[in-house]
């Protein structure tokens, strides 16, 4: 079940992030995540199974004069990776973003460890930067362009 994030989820989400350190995140990113949850998680979602959070991810707006949304902080419990949780969560966010007619591009900033996941979903690599997030965690910036939104074709896109 995918639902909207609430502040009551914070403790469980931080524990989820820590389960993915050092495999997918650096220890130095924990404070960044806490700040994100505190200040930037307006469009953040969690995936629950049997009352436990097994995944999370969000998106942020306001980039490129309001025309770009950015996928943010994707995390899946290690025991559930490779089972479609991340894909379902990403498609859920794309669907939400696609409802906003002002957005024509989605960007994801990820690492060399998972960029192929986004590539399979249609994102294209734009640039890389070595050790961007932390030593050994390179930036892989990718994007996807959405169809132009008009009221006439909006229902066909969704």
TrEMBL record:
Keywords: Acyltransferase, Transferase
PROSITE patterns documented for this protein: GNAT (PS51186)
Domain N-acetyltransferase: 1-147
UniProt entry tagged with the keyword Transcription: no
GO terms assigned for molecular function: acyltransferase activity
UniProt enzyme class: transferase
InterPro entries listed in its UniProt record: Acyl_CoA_acyltransferase, GNAT_dom
EC number: 2.3.-.-
Superkingdom as given in the UniProt entry: Bacteria
Keyword Acyltransferase: yes
CDD domains linked: NAT_SF
Protein name: GNAT family N-acetyltransferase
Organism: Pontibacter ruber
